[in-house]
Amino acid sequence: MKDSRDGSGSERVTKSATANSIPLILDVEDFKGDFSFDALFGNLVNGLLPSFQEEEADSSDVHGNISGNDLLPNGHMRAPSDVSKLSQGLSSPLFPEVDALLSLFKDSFRELVDLRKQIDSKLYNLKKEVSVQDAKHRKTLAELEKGVDGLFDSFARLDSRISSVGQTAAKIGDHLQSADAQRETASQTIELIKYLMEFNSSPGDLMELSSLFSDDSRVAEAASIAQKLRSFAEEDIGRQGIAVPSVMGNATASRGLEVAVANLQEYCNELENRLLSRFDAASQRRELSTMAECAKILSQFNRGTSAMQHYVATRPMFIDVEIMNADTRLVLGDQGSQASPNNVARGLSSLYKEITDTVRKEAATIMAVFPSPNDVMSILVQRVLEQRITALLDKLLVKPSLLNPPPLEEGGLLLYLRMLAVAYEKTQELARDLRAVGCGDLDVEGLSESLFSTHKDEYPEHERASLRQLYQAKMEELRAENQQLSESSGTIGRSKGASVASSPQQISVTVVTEFVRWNEEAISRCTLFSSQPATLAANVKAVFNCLLDQVSQYITDGLERARDSLTEAAALRERFVLGTNLSRRVAAAAASAAEAAAAAGESSFRSFMVAVQRCGSSVAIVQQYFANSISRLLLPVDGAHAASCEEMATAMRSAESAAYKGLQQCIETVMAEVERLLSAEQKATDYRSPDDGIVPDHRPTTACTRVVAYLSRVLDAAFTALEGLNKQAFLTELGNRLHKGLINHWQKFTFNPSGGLRLKRDITEYGEFVRSFNAPSVDEKFEQLGILANVFIVAPESLSTLFEGTPSIRRDAQRFIQLRDDYKSAKLASRLSSLWSS
């Protein structure tokens, strides 16, 4: 309730409660707004319970002095007055206001019921009134909808009427416009016929024409009329020429119009020349407005083609000879000097920038003057490329002959190819710049491409010929260097009867790298000149095959030269093989010569290993180049990559064959020296020392020590040069040959037990060395040799049990047993016959 109402209501309630005879008065207004039931209830009972408010205020003061006995049975605290009342025996009622409150509550309930009935009555009346008003409103809305629908129908009929009237007016307007156009056409036709009659006078007589055709201020109108008359006359003559003239009138008309056409042609030519002269005069004075006026009029003559071509042809860049000579000097330099590609590139960049700037300036004028500037720009750019650029390229690119190419001292074919690449690249840049400036519908890139068509058609042949020329020149240079080196060092003299040739020219990885660099430059030109993937792949494949041929031939020749050195060393060894029944002096001289031949063999062995190593490095360089630069250019074409890989393998087969043969010769050279050392150093007493009680010598024999030292020294080059499967195959073959050679060598000696121990020590020394070969099969053979050496150590009666666990070596054991010094005395042949038969 509102405060004012709460106050008045509570006041009335309090008075009613106090009087107890006056009924409660509750107003509906008391329940509106912010109604609070607590406030209403408080106002009802506060008048009857004044002590309740006072006790409530004092409750907090006595709360702390309450003991356990002050609690009532219902849980409430007992006030001090209550205690005193209890002490008096409860002589009076506990709640004397209960009757008054009960009466108050009953009166309040009765009045609240009355208020509810009043409210319900008011609500019923309001609902009834709202229902009546809603019915009226709906009726009004229905009437309004009918009125609106009628209004819409009226508007639709009005719109249809307006549309009909508009269509009628449009038709009338079209008829009027058509009639006006026909009237205008008739008027113009009459006018044209009058002018046509003037031109149909005597041939070549233009003096009697109307002032229109001689008035300079009406040139545009005169040109337009003349073109119309000319078109009409030529069309009529064309019709008469197609139809068969059957009457005299047609023939006469044709002859009359032919006169008119001739006069009109003469007049148009004279007018066009007059306009071109005026255009030229205005161009020299830079009067753009006059130039634009003349160009607009001239556009009626052949669409202005003559004016466009005339303007372009009169540009200084096309008629000034000094400008053309300056172009040549800027690009090629002074006459008589040989231009370099770098200088040409700088000259072309400067010249093409100047041309682009000139065209850009002309474009500004053309935009301001000509009604069709794109057509003029197309003619201008085409003239620039076909005249100015072509004239320069003809002087710059002189195609050399493939049958008689220019010498490399003058640049050779490579100079032409570099010039071609520079000119092509710079001209393509010029085309892009001109496209940016504007060239109408002209395919400027295609036109610039066509300037090089004759050069590009024969480009692959020139590229391959250039690579061949470079290779031949390089080979001649290397031969000259080798010859000079041989002459400066002199020939190696004879030493104790053995002559040794000078070391051959070695393969150079630097030279192969130079081959690759040539090819890489050629591939870059292939990429520049070949726009289609198939063409590019074909050119790249052809150029790369040149590299394969060059590298294959170069390394094969290098390997063959190294093989020749091995062959010469082998020939020297054959010359100084020791014979029998020689004097001591001759034997000593032959031995010395044989050592010199052995030194030559070792040197040739090392040279060949270096050649093999460099050959492998060269092939690796080519393979890496193919993977990095070539393969990606071949992949777009099916089969090109695989075919090129096959060709690469085929090209290297000759080198592989030479390397294989050379490695076989290296093995022969090593084994020949091993055999020489064994023959020269091995003594019969090494394996048959006397049993004089001296402690046996457990050191390797001198021959073994020399052979192992030689092998360690000479094979160091093989370990460095070879790798992978090549190294494994070479060392395995050498190990097998060494095993066989040692067995054949030991077949020449007889062995006692102490000699067998010495032999076993040699075998251990050989086995430890060949273990560095990492060849399991070779290691196994030398282990079996160690087992075979036991046949010289054990007693004869123990031989039968020696090979019971290893039957695979019985054959070699049989040969070794025959080398025992007691083989015959101990009758080992008959004793072991049962062993061999089993």
Automatic annotation (TrEMBL):
Keywords assigned by UniProt, alphabetized: Coiled coil, Exocytosis, Transport
GO-annotated cellular components: exocyst
Organism expressing this protein natively: Rubroshorea leprosula
Pfam family, one: Sec10_N
UniProt protein name: Exocyst complex component Sec10
Exocyst complex component Sec10 N-terminal domain sequence ranges: 99-215
Any GO BP annotation: Golgi to plasma membrane transport
Family designation: Belongs to the SEC10 family.
Tagged with keyword Amino-acid biosynthesis: no
